[in-house]
Design a protein that fits this description.
2 domains, mainly alpha
Length: about 375
């Protein structure tokens, strides 16, 4: 049972994470004000690129935390280091041509991917053993980003400084833990966590990456501004899901409760946009936002979060055909984006319909499992059947 000190350190970590997210959005607001639309679009594309590759680190962190909590000893799989390096090398030409990113941005960030992988394992261990130390490490990474950007901007210019400070901050966080010996490594369900995390983050960032290629520059800038703010919905839903991982595994009705929480958060967020959307746009970007576009993307993010919740719960309860449903959702989203991209609104509307169709298909599959008498993630549907 956790001690009072451990609980207080965990609460401190949660407050630090909330503060970091708030500072990150303030950082984005400053960049959006000072950068040209094309520069800001490129920067957001770089962060989306890193989010996709960081899935290896996040999956390692989750699996390392789970293994540590079970008292299992582990080592970092070497193939992951090579996977990160090869993946970056193969993706660099694509990013330079289609996402219009400078080669030195992707090279600098790519060199830090293996470092980030090792850092993530340490963070997973500390999440269980020493959450206070993890909080300090996160503060160092993100705090250094905020402090170093103005200094580097005097030398390289703001957009290059903002891009290069990402790998620099990762390097500083890794330097902070250089003396820590990794005595655990993630064996427990690592492949499952990696697969689930990859699809979750890839789907969350795919529209931002493709918008730069599919839409006209002006429309792409409008879309990315709204998508950046809509990510708050995905962040909140992800934290609700992660905080409920244990109950999703052990309590049959927990999935309904988390689905209601996500839906409630989405409704509150939409009401907030309706009331304060224009003011937020003026504060962050200096212009009025396309509020309706922002609301569409929040709806899409909420629906994708519900799909992700159902599939993660299915994975935690041992269902094997989860990969098929992730591939179905990915194919559906890509198909819709390739068909409907004449404007930012059309692209967002297509994503909403794709996410809704995916959610209905998942629920329909669960109902079929119930009729066959199989145990699945929605027990009330089973009872109704």
């Amino acid at each position: 049972m956790p001690t009072k000190q451990q609980l207080s350190h965990t609460a401190l970590l949660m407050l630090i994470q909330i503060g970091i997210q708030a500072a990150t959005y303030l950082y984005y607001a400053v960049l959006a004000r000072w950068l040209e639309p094309t520069e800001f679009t490129a920067y957001v594309g770089l962060t989306a690129f890193f989010s996709i590759y960081s899935v290896i680190g996040i999956s390692l962190q989750q699996s390392a935390a789970r293994a540590t909590s079970l008292g299992q000893s582990v080592t970092i799989p070497n193939y992951l280091i090579w996977l990160g390096a090869v993946g970056v090398g193969l993706s660099m030409p694509i990013l330079m041509v289609y996402a219009h990113l400078p080669w030195y941005w992707t090279l600098a960030l790519g060199l830090m991917i293996p470092v980030y992988i090792r850092l993530s394992v340490w963070r997973g261990i500390q999440l269980v053993l020493a959450p206070k130390q993890l909080g300090l490490n996160l503060m160092l990474e993100h705090g250094s980003k905020l402090l170093l950007t103005p200094a580097l901007a005097l030398i390289f210019g703001l957009v290059d400084a903002a891009a290069l400070v990402i790998p620099i901050s990762i390097g500083l966080a890794a330097w902070h833990v250089r003396k820590q010996k990794l005595i655990h490594s993630p064996k427990s369900d690592f492949d499952g966590f990696l697969l689930h995390g990859f699809f979750q983050l890839f789907l969350a960032n795919l529209d931002v990456l493709l918008a730069q290629t599919l839409l006209e520059p002006a429309q792409a800038s409008v879309y990315i501004q709204a998508a950046l703010l809509a990510r708050v919905m995905g962040f909140l839903a992800l934290n609700l899901t992660q905080a409920s991982t244990q109950t999703l595994t052990t309590q049959p009705l927990a999935v309904w409760r988390v689905m209601l929480w996500i839906t409630g958060v989405a409704m509150i967020y939409l009401c907030g946009i309706a009331l304060l959307g224009n003011q937020v746009g003026l504060l962050m970007f200096g212009t009025k936002l396309e509020v309706n576009l922002w609301m569409l993307l929040v709806v899409a993010s909420g629906l994708l979060s519900l799909c992700s919740l159902l599939l993660q719960t299915a994975f935690l309860r041992g269902h094997k055909p989860v990969l098929v449903w992730w591939l179905f959702g990915l194919g559906l989203q890509i198909s819709v984006m390739l068909i409907s991209h004449q404007s930012a609104y059309q692209l967002a509307s297509g994503l909403v319909w794709a996410a809704l169709l995916w959610l209905v298909a998942i629920l329909w599959q669960h109902k079929n499992l119930a009729q066959q008498g199989e145990v699945h993630v929605l027990p009330k549907i089973q009872k109704m059947a």
